[in-house]
Specification:
By secondary structure, this protein is of the alpha+beta class. It contains 22 helices and 27 strands. It folds into 5 domains: 67 residues, PAS domain (Beta-Lactamase), CATH 3.30.450.20; 109 residues, 2-Layer Sandwich (Beta-Lactamase); 171 residues, Beta-Lactamase (2-Layer Sandwich); 102 residues, Beta-Lactamase (2-Layer Sandwich); 169 residues, Histidine kinase-like ATPase, C-terminal domain (Heat Shock Protein 90).
Length: 773
């Protein structure tokens, strides 16, 4: 075969192998097939598929060979590309399988170690995933069973802890139906969790790439601790509400102890109160401690070695006893503790906000140990709430004792207490209800109390109250009450507005004093005083009869004379119209003067009501001096006036002020009877004291007042002259005091006496007086 030209077109790397294959085929006479590259005319090697078949002669020997070469370059390239693609795919599958394996391991690890329960089920309700947390939560693993049996099998309940959860409303059932479920609370109770646990569930449907429902998944979170804390806080709120509602202290403390005991298995608690003597304990609450133990402790003294509670109250510090059988503090209670099954006790004093010991809170255990952090937390909460309850009850006791003392004092003083609130409600003591005519069970309001005020005075009382509220002050008003059955009652009402730090009214507190009896007595006294004053005026009229007769005779005589003159002019027929007019005008003036004298006498003698008007002291003094002028002349005396034109007006009764002046002038004239006529002089003067007081003075030059006590002249039945009863100046003083003024007597520096009367200026007159000055 050497020298064959076909060898030149073979690839040098393949020619040796091809030659060896051909030699074997020739030697064996077997057909052969092979692939190899051949060089083309362009020098490019292309792959060919070469096949050769032997052709035999009649003797069975190979006569020749028939072969073909087929260009398979493209086919080989496709096969190579296919092989490479297959290799790449195998690598990707291997890599992706490894990734899936790692992911599955991670998911299995997550599901196994996560705290939340994860459950996956297909649409036929078969569980696909039920992680360990789900097995712990529901007490069992995944099991094949009908959906309707899930609630009973896994112990699933509604939040009432009694009603089985409806199977068609289970979060998993709803998720499988395609619903999204959020924050469904479920109570779970089974053999491994006999006290139950709470779980919050979120569910979602599982869908394929085409959106078809494949099943559902739920995630269940254990919220038992959160729910227990919610229940615990709700229990604390209930206790605080009981305190705010003033429930009995024993009920409040019992509820509090039961609440604390419910937070830990096997825990028993008690609350002891420190007696008001500060030396002994009293039973507060211990619902689950033996009765024998409760009775033995009740009334025990406190001290440095008196059990956990007595020692805690004495030292004002927590006392922890981990073994009551060996601790010396329990020496006196050891046998009792053994009988009651108590082995450990720790007690904490209950203190008021002011640091005062109110009692103690204790925890008891049947095992020998000290408190755990959670139990310390419960103790802090219990002592805080118990302190509020006990301190509030003690404050109420103090208030009740104070109210009782105040009520006794109020009843003795005939006072009624009341409180008005900004919302319109009101409170009133029993005494007040009787004064205002309210039934003991009638709810009171501010408007209802105001409706009892007499209609004539209601607006003024309301205005006074509103003014006090606006000015943040107190108010006082005297007015009448008109009761439902028509009776009128006089009261004095005093109140004060209480405000918070922002100035808002909290309440208005006050008292009402029934002064009806005093008013009636004052009215009777007023009637008696007016009667005495009237008699005094009549007596004065008797003393001044000659003077009054002269005052009347003068104008009457003048009228008679002038009328006679007019008649003579008419008889003569010689009528002078101007002269006649003058005579008639003088007659009219004399008639008016006589009428004024008569009116003055009549007003002094007549009984009049004490109606007060605005009075001008200067005018009254001038009229009164003119009224007594004849008597002054008869006594050979002189009365002069020194009147201040700026003296303010006063509010008073005209006839009573005139009576005062008459009494003082007549007394002054009487005091000078023994003097020579030239020395008998009376001065009546007025002056203004800073504009808010009007003052008038009657001064004589007689013997003066008693030197040891000048004011003795105002006493009843005191007199210095033989005639009279000694009531004149006493009546004068009562009249002046009834007008809100004062009267005083003093001896003048040289001789004689001064009677000084001071009356308050009327409203509006003060400013006028100051402006005029």
């Amino acid at each position: 075969m050497k020298g064959w030209g076909w060898q030149k077109v073979h690839h040098p790397d393949e020619v040796g192998r091809v030659v060896e294959r051909i030699k074997v085929a020739f030697a064996t006479g077997q057909p052969w097939e092979d692939t190899f590259p051949l060089r083309s005319k362009t020098g490019e090697y292309r792959w060919f598929l070469s096949r050769a078949l032997p052709i035999f002669d009649a003797e069975g020997k190979v006569a020749r060979w028939f072969g073909t070469n087929t260009d398979i370059t493209k086919q080989r390239e496709l096969e190579q590309a296919l092989r490479e693609s297959r290799d790449q795919l195998e690598q990707k599958v291997t890599r992706r399988t490894a990734e899936f394996s790692r992911t599955n391991e991670i998911l299995r690890s997550i599901l196994s170690n996560m705290g939340d329960a994860v459950i996956v089920a297909d649409k036929e309700n078969n569980f696909l995933v039920f992680n360990p947390a789900a097995e712990r939560m529901f007490g069992k693993g995944a099991m094949e069973m009908p959906l309707v049996e899930w609630p009973q099998h896994y112990g699933l309940y509604l939040p009432d802890k009694v009603t089985p959860f409806p199977h068609d409303q289970l979060p998993m059932t709803r998720s499988i139906r395609g619903e999204e479920v959020d924050n469904i609370e479920m109570f779970v109770r089974h053999e491994k969790a006999p006290h139950g646990l709470w779980t919050e569930i979120i569910g979602r449907p599982l869908r394929g790439a085409d959106g078809d429902l494949l099943g559902g998944v739920i995630v269940c979170r254990d919220i038992t601790q959160i729910k227990e804390e919610e229940f615990f806080r709700a229990g604390q709120s209930r206790v605080l509400e009981m305190i705010a509602a003033d429930a009995p202290l024993s009920e409040v403390l019992k509820t509090l102890v039961l609440l604390m005991e419910g937070q830990a298995e096997g825990l028993r608690c008690s609350i002891l109160l420190l007696n008001r003597d500060g030396k002994h304990v009293r039973h507060g609450a211990a619902p689950n401690l033996p009765e024998a133990y409760v009775k033995a402790v009740d009334g025990a003294p406190i001290g440095p070695c008196n059990g956990s509670c007595g020692t805690a109250m004495f030292t004002r510090k927590p006392v922890i006893v981990t073994n009551v059988m060996t601790d010396p503090l329990w020496r006196d209670y050891r046998d009792l503790a053994r009988i009651c099954g108590l082995r450990a006790c720790w007690s904490t004093p209950i203190l008021s906000p002011q640091g005062e010991v109110l009692g103690s809170f204790a925890m008891y255990r049947q095992e020998k140990r000290g408190p755990r952090p959670e139990e310390d937390r419960l103790t802090n909460i219990a002592t805080h709430i118990a302190g509020i309850a006990i301190d509030r009850q003690r404050q109420h006791e103090v208030l009740r004792e104070r109210d009782a003392r105040i009520s006794v004092a109020a009843e003795s003083a005939d006072l009624a207490f009341w409180v008005l609130y900004p919302e319109g409600d009101a409170w009133m003591s029993d005494k007040g209800r009787r004064i205002y005519g309210f039934d003991s069970n009638l709810p009171l309001t501010c408007d209802l109390i105001l409706s009892r005020v007499h209609p004539d005075e209601r607006a003024a009382v309301k205005a006074e109250y509103d003014r006090a509220c606006a000015l943040r002050g107190a108010f006082e008003t005297e007015h009448r009450l008109l009761l439902p059955y028509g009776k009128t009652r006089w009261v004095i009402m005093r109140g004060r507005c209480l405000r918070d730090e922002h100035g808002n009214i909290l309440e208005t507190i006050g008292v009402t004093l029934d002064v009806s009896a005093q008013k009636q007595a004052a009215l009777q006294l007023l009637v008696q005083r007016e009667e005495m004053a009237h008699r005094n005026r009549v007596a004065l009229m008797g003393e001044m009869t000659a003077s009054f007769a002269h005052e009347i005779n003068q104008p009457l005589t003048a009228i008679s004379n002038k009328a006679s003159a007019a008649r003579r002019f008419l008889d003569r027929g010689n009528i002078d119209p101007v002269l006649l007019r003058e005579l008639l005008e003088e007659i009219a003036a004399d008639s008016q003067r006589a009428g004024e004298v008569m009116r003055g006498i009549r007003s002094l003698v007549r009984k009049e009501t004490s109606e007060q008007t605005l009075l001008n002291l200067n005018a009254i003094i001038s009229d009164t001096v003119r009224l007594v002028s004849s008597d002054v002349l008869n006594r050979e005396s002189v009365v002069t006036t020194e009147l201040d034109p700026n003296v303010p007006g006063v509010q008073g009764t005209l006839v009573q002020i005139q009576q005062v002046l008459l009494n003082l002038i007549i007394n002054a004239l009487d005091a000078m009877e023994a003097l020579p006529p030239a020395e008998r002089r009376v001065i009546v003067s007025t002056r203004s004291d800073k504009g808010d007081v009007a003052e008038f003075i009657v001064r004589d030059f007689g013997m003066g007042l008693p030197k040891d006590r000048p004011d003795k002249v105002f006493d009843h039945f005191f007199f210095t002259k033989q005639k009279g009863m000694g009531m004149g100046l006493a009546i004068v003083r009562s009249i002046i005091e009834a007008h809100g003024g004062t009267i005083s007597g003093e001896n003048a520096p040289d001789r004689g006496a001064c009677m000084v009367v001071r009356l308050p200026a009327a409203r509006g007159e003060v400013q006028k007086s100051k402006a005029a000055a």
